[in-house]
Design goal:
The chain is α/β, with parallel strands linked by helices and 176 residues long. The chain has 6 helices and 8 strands. It has 2 domains: 118 residues, Rossmann fold (3-Layer(aba) Sandwich), CATH 3.40.50; 53 residues, no CATH class. The strands form 2 sheets. A 6-stranded parallel sheet has the order 4-3-2-1-5-6, sandwiched between helices. A two-stranded antiparallel ribbon has the order 7-8.
Length: 176
């Protein structure tokens, strides 16, 4: 069975639509997802995989317990640095999926580790995540219980907030 190394930038706290499409294809094919335990994209992808009830996920981490685990099987990786974990996932995976902010050096290195599909998703805090119009209301904090880096403020416009489209988009991304 094929394994996919899903990685991304810590600055990305929600999944772009292209990432959701790719994760759905991975799930449809029954691939094993290797993912890290960092806040940002790792947690956002875990949230989505949990929301679609996809269980073929291995959460790789350094140390005795993962930093962020939303209920997946874990695999402690030998080493002292997060790059040790990333190197393991890159060696083990057949493919990669990276959601990159265009700046993260760690994600750039992960892209080089395996045959990777790259989705560029710079965090634009001035545009609504639903409709891409200017975010008149600034950012709306999400009702999450994770520590602050995993509890981002999401840019949204008044129309999407009032109409309920924001709630629909957040549910699609695994926020409840």
């Amino acid at each position: 069975m094929s394994k996919v190394f899903v990685s991304g930038s810590r600055s990305i706290h929600y999944l772009p639509s292209d990432a959701i499409t790719s994760l759905n294809r991975i799930a449809e094919q029954g691939f094993t997802v290797l993912i890290g335990d960092c806040y940002g994209l790792d947690t956002a992808a875990q949230r989505y995989l949990r929301a679609i009830n996809y269980k073929n996920v291995i959460l790789c981490h350094i140390g005795p317990v993962p930093r962020n685990n939303l209920g997946f099987n874990t695999l402690p990786i030998e080493g002292y640095y997060q790059t040790d974990k990333d190197e393991y996932m890159g060696r083990t995976a057949d493919y990669g999926l990276a959601i990159w902010d265009g700046q993260s050096r760690g994600t750039a290195e992960n892209i080089r580790r395996t045959n990777t599909k790259v989705i560029t998703a710079p965090p634009d805090k001035t545009k609504c995540i639903v409709c891409s119009k200017p975010s008149e209301s600034g950012s709306c904090p999400l009702p999450l219980t994770f520590h602050p880096p995993s509890n981002p403020k999401i840019p949204v416009c008044f129309d999407c907030y009032k109409s309920g489209r924001l709630a629909t988009e957040l549910t699609l991304r695994g926020f409840h």
